[in-house]
Amino acid sequence: MDIWSQLIPEFSFQQVFVEPWTELLDPFIWIFLMGFFVTAACGFIGTFIVWRRMALVGDAISHSVLPGLVIAFLVSQSRDTLPMFLGAVGAGILTTGLIEIIHQKSRIKTDAALGIVFTTLFAFGVVLVSLYGENVDLDTDCVLYGEIEHVTLEPLSSFFGLFEAPGSVMRMGIVSLLVVVLVILFYRPLVVSSFDPGLARSMGMNPAVMHHALMSLLAIVVVSSFEAVGAVLVIAMLIFPGTTASLLSDRLPVILGITLVIALLGAFFGMHFALWLDISTAGAISTVIFGMFLLAWVFAPRRGLLWRAFR
Known about the structure:
By secondary structure, this protein is mostly helical. It has one domain: ABC transporter involved in vitamin B12 uptake, BtuC. It is globular and about 60 Å long. The protein starts with a helix and ends with a helix.
């Protein structure tokens, strides 16, 4: 018992589940909303990325933003949000463009092109940090794992006088809403071009345009999520919600709806899980959505392991 008490803190329902929504609502509501917005945006667009068999493009983008951040700092001599965001998005879009060019203009497969581009850009970023390291403040823990808890330290910004929220939470909320709106508006060409580019072309659609638009939107989502969940855990946010939902339904609208539910549950239980064990919130959210994937994998109707065993 002594060993377990040292490894696992004592659980208090009052402290873990009640106080964050009563006495400590002001800081914890922003952590919850940031976790939900990140997971929802990544999961929503990640569904289409997984179907296109390009799940690790998000990993490439998350590692390739480093030179964009450094160049943006050197040009602007500022760590303000706007130049950092523009530099990172530019690096992300450059990453997807280079992957596509190498794949189309050579016999190199997509996975090899992905490895070439993101390792080269990341190495270039490391070189820039080495050359101008005295001018660059780089938090490696934040880069790798994110610091979602830092949203509680940001000053509140007003949104046209309607409400106030930390700037990063407001920005992530806008990105999440943008992703949902764009997917709804371009739902049909997205679906057709994802499953059958030839059919999309015969219907007068342009699969290449849809592909580049989707990659650009992916770059924006990954960069927006970067500070909260880091370069590593953003991949879990991109892959797990969509794949879990795909185990539970065949219909795309239902899958997208389940993705949002997974994002909500992951942010809720992940925040409380992190509070109980005093661990990284981003890591806790990723662990929770992985747990939901395992449950779906085992118990899902028709596709679950138990269903297959007793069918």
